[in-house]
Q: What sequence folds into this?
């Protein structure tokens, strides 16, 4: 943990969340206690029910005479302890409707429930969910988000920076999103004329019409066609998985869709071939988007070849063929990346992946520990095969602690909230009420802390993006800087001749550059004033941006450790960057 700063941040957040969690737990217990006392007064001893079909209001004696069992609901309000546990389960929003329906049907002590006897009972649960679930439980989210923000700021030494210095640090880190992209370079003059024609075709652009826009439109149509497949419902008596079911799907409509998909596969394969010919293999593969396109095209072509070669004769390859077909949907990502808003959101999510991965590692560690404990506590419990008013029957072959892998996935399922309390009550029937401590503590740590920590990471990143968009150097400003640099540096070498710096600053405009109206002389004066280091009479992309950002934000000094961390981050992001002498 000490060697991984991101993991250290997550662990420190968890440790420092303990005091506020204790305070929130006290507040929650007080809230639950008030509602539990009220619930005990209303429904203590009234959730019992006969498993046999007897009239409402009948006694336990009548139930036994009818051959039924007089059972209590697992979630009840017979005492304050059971009531607080029941309210915690209701606040988790899992199986809470069962509790509410039992309260509505309650007909008195030792009486068979009557359907919809007390409709007003629903108001109790609605009020509690608003207060206990939507308000009190979300205090845990607020505590985790606030603590994570403080820990992150301390580790990044943000408390030592002024607002201008903080904006400068953020802009330097955001520079990773705005690397200049190399402009497509035509093939050498000694190459065949067909390569030049292919290059002109794939780079064609006139107004809003371009080769890439046309391909994007075709991708949209292809996705729509892939989503239009219709599965025909077999008639009664036709066995699933037989050739009769497969033949039923071969309608004229579905066959037309298959041929349309085949046509799009050919079109996209031709597109990849044209780009490979016009740009050349090295230049084509230098773009991550082109590599992604080529991967999808190869997968689509392989799937088409298998489909044509094998057809319906070999059912053993049907699953592999289905996988190849499904992967064609990945083209929608290429279409989504053309929208700046979606692209920025995907970039934000991408930046949170390392931090989220750290939290997932800790979550796996917690689940590992609780799985081992669960195997020792509940590993010998038999499956609950009976499901009735007194049992949920959820401790079964799908959710148990008899083996490690099943127990691990049982706890993972519980972190999603799926029937976690049903499993708990099945274990409580066999191991006693003390078992509730195991499940409640796991839900507090796994769901209340770990899952909320993921929310905190996402909120922190989106909040940082929102603040940056309103700062003196916005995302649009940085995109303008990067796009203009690409015009001066078509090969994306990250360097431009020093003699062109003044013209670059003049074209850049405010706030990082200088207005064209102020003249070239003023731009030359600014270029000298910036004092950008030169190597071989060239200025570096990072150095120029750093100087322009410092000038605009009036940042003369910055914490040495923070600047060192920034430069290390930049060197990892920009391998071309060399430390200025």
A:
């Amino acid at each position: 943990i000490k060697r991984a700063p991101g993991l250290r941040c997550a662990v420190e957040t968890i440790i420092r969340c303990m005091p506020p969690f204790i305070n929130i737990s006290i507040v929650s217990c007080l809230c639950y206690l008030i509602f539990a006392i009220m619930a005990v007064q209303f429904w203590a001893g009234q959730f019992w029910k006969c498993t046999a079909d007897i009239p409402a209001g009948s006694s336990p004696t009548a139930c036994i005479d009818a051959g039924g069992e007089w059972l209590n609901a697992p979630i009840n309000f017979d005492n304050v302890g059971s009531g607080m546990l029941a309210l915690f389960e209701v606040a988790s929003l899992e199986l809470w409707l069962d509790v509410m329906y039992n309260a509505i049907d309650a007909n008195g002590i030792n009486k068979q429930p009557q359907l919809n006897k007390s409709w007003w009972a629903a108001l109790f649960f609605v009020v509690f969910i608003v207060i206990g679930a939507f308000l009190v439980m979300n205090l845990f989210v607020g505590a985790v988000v606030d603590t994570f923000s403080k820990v992150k700021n301390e580790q990044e030494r943000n408390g030592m920076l002024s607002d201008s210095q903080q904006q400068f640090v953020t802009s330097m880190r955001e520079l990773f999103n705005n690397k200049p992209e190399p402009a497509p370079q035509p093939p050498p003059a000694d190459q065949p004329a067909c390569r030049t024609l292919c290059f002109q075709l794939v780079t064609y652009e006139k107004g809003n019409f371009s080769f890439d826009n046309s391909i994007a439109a075709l991708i949209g149509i292809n996705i729509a066609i892939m989503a239009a497949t219709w599965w025909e419902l077999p008639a009664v008596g036709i066995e699933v998985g037989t050739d009769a079911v497969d033949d039923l799907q071969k309608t004229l409509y579905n066959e037309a869709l298959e041929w349309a998909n085949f046509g799009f596969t050919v079109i996209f394969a031709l597109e990849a071939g044209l780009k490979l010919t016009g740009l050349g293999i090295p230049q084509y593969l230098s773009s991550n988007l082109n590599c992604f396109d080529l991967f999808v095209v190869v997968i689509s072509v392989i799937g088409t070849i298998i489909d044509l070669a094998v057809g319906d004769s070999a059912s053993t390859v049907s699953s592999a063929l289905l996988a190849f077909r499904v992967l064609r949907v990945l083209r929608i990502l290429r279409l989504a990346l053309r929208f700046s808003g979606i692209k920025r959101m995907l970039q934000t999510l991408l930046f949170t992946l390392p931090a989220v991965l750290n939290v997932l590692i800790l979550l796996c560690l917690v689940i590992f520990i609780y799985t081992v404990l669960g195997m020792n506590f509940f590993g010998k419990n038999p499956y609950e095969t009976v499901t009735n008013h007194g049992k949920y029957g959820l401790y079964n072959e799908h959710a148990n602690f008899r083996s490690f892998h099943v127990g691990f996935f049982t706890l993972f399922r519980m972190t999603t909230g799926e029937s976690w309390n049903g499993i708990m009550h099945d274990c409580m029937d066999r191991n006693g009420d003390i078992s509730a401590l195991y499940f409640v503590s796991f839900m507090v740590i796994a769901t209340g802390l770990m899952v909320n920590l993921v929310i905190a990471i996402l909120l922190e990143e989106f909040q940082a993006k929102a603040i940056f968009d309103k700062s003196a150097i916005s995302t649009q400003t940085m995109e303008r800087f990067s796009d203009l640099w690409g015009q001066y540096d078509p090969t994306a070498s990250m360097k431009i001749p020093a003699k062109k710096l003044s013209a670059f600053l003049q074209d850049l405009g405010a706030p990082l550059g200088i207005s064209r109206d102020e003249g070239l002389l003023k731009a030359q004066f600014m270029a000298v004033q910036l004092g950008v280091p030169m190597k071989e009479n060239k200025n570096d992309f990072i150095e120029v941006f750093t100087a322009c950002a410092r000038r605009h934000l009036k940042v003369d000094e910055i914490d040495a450790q923070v600047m060192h961390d920034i430069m290390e981050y930049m060197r990892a992001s920009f391998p071309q960057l060399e430390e200025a002498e």
